[in-house]
Design a protein that fits this description.
Chain lengths: 131, 131, 131, 131, 131, 131
């Protein structure tokens, strides 16, 4: 099984609802370093799983939809935009793009995705799904 | 599948028994950077797998039991406290804490654990288990 | 010349005023990884420049005053809380603490400070000053 | 399940054939940081999965066969030595060495390998296989 | 004194002339992670040393002139394109751009440059100069 | 001014004397990631400040004298082998080697040294001196 990963980042504001979140209930922010891994069992005739340049572009577009925003005001996101929720969000948007052919891969080439968001040097979260 | 990881570290002394360990048979030491990943398929109603602050606290306690110690003299550890052995030790202690509810997760929320110990910039070991 | 560095971080929201800032004029946020370096020419009789635990505590307090906040609403900060401005802010607060003896160093032991704030894996800023 | 990882690197020249590779069709080069993970379910009587020194040596030899070379001229490699192809190449060579006993592990101790090649701070690829 | 750093990278082929270079006399290659630090004593009225976006663009252009090339065939470079030589080359090109106003800074704002090129996780070189 | 850095590491045991060291008074240990930077204003006729392979070898020898040891029992070290003390020790040993010609540089080529020891992902110390 092959995996190809590209890294990007986004800088966002948000807040959390729920007493357990303590000071994170206040409006604050984060730089999320975003790693997207595309998995598949077979390489194409050019010897690659996918075009890493296209993968980086697609990730940049997905991340760009959230970048420099207050996520509390972005439609389509749940109230608490935890690192887990955002990892799933990015993975789901990338899976749609894989499905639509935007990554230039024929159906079945990419079979799974893992997206990891690093919120600091001490904590990160990931979401893994099939495509 | 979601994964949430927190990082801590511990600084310990130890030695190894067995000729194959060469100079590591002598009393020496290590900083272990410890990454603990908690896995689960579903987020809770607040949109998180678990309280990352609680996870960090629990890891800190587990790591604190070994910190600033000569592991050759800590009861309950095998003779050779290899990076693999210590990764399993930390994972097992965390699994007990998940089981006892110390991480604030209801039963079944966290289904697996991976603990990785980095002994240097050139080598690390991990242990993965179900909870 | 010796240098001792401790690392911490803060997660904040803010926005910038000025067209050149483009999308960063919107409310967004950042995780700043904060490295504080204390410099001095001589070690004390215990063989250290300063107590690294105290240094970490003091940095944590300084960073804690800004953590989980919208910096646009924190009094005493300039309108644009750029990475440069925040590096200087943290350095100035630490210099006051060095001066007041909060780091446990006698006068003249620590002669300079460098504070570096990493805003992402691609950009960081620092501020260096005497104490 | 245990995993033990060692890191090495190689510095190589190569080029790609195919219009989609754009400027990478030209002869250029890369430093590949190479992480090899050995997996197995059980530790040996000494409390290790394998001798990490031997693992590092074997990886160094495998990587050394490609180091400081123009991969376009190395026999036995496909035309396009993508990061994916090279990850598989290194994994396959290591699997042979595990099989031949060069890592000092009895049959069945190491059951799988993952090799990850980092081509930059923004992109990496991995290949996972059984042994 | 402030410093602002941006990171980029380039992937190049090259070889060295001289017996002391051993296997590096052969055509091989490297990924150079390139960090460019701009230094200055005063912030501008917007609270920044320089526009970090412009700095990143200018570095990307300078690095782009060498990217995906065989440096042995690039005019204007010395025979041995060591990491030191390339660090100086990038610093000199950036200094010209600072001087020409391409970074949007008035004369005297940026007073020094440091460029660091990482050739692997084990070695890097830097060049520092005034502007 | 040029700088060339090589990285190595050592794994040691030690303890500290003095109440302020708290639990670090107990025998414990550390992995120190050791970065040695050699500085000089001019490159030699081959376009390098020094032979990076020789620099790595010399650092490896210096670090090797302390590796896999209990520093409390190594002669010639002060009672408290703080990160600062060890950074100075490594720098002084390297300066002697530069002076003796072991790095293959003629007198005056290398004018200064900086040695940084990382004791964890959260703390490091450095020592800078002329040669």
């Amino acid at each position: 099984m092959f995996g190809v990963t590209v890294r990007d980042h986004m800088m966002v504001a948000h807040s959390f609802e729920g007493e357990r979140f303590g000071p994170a209930q206040r409006l604050h922010g984060a730089t999320f370093i975003v790693d997207a891994t595309f998995r598949g069992a077979e390489l194409d005739p050019d010897g690659i799983l996918l075009d890493i340049g296209l993968a980086a572009e697609q990730l940049h577009e997905v991340v760009g939809e959230l970048s420099y925003r207050n996520l509390d005001e972005v439609e389509g996101l749940p109230r608490n935009t935890s690192t887990e929720v955002l990892a799933r969000h990015v993975a789901d948007r990338l899976a749609e793009r894989v499905g639509s052919g935007a990554l230039g891969t024929e159906p079945g080439r990419v079979t799974a995705l893992v997206v990891t968001l690093h919120e600091s040097h001490l904590a990160w979260a990931s979401y893994e799904r099939t495509v």
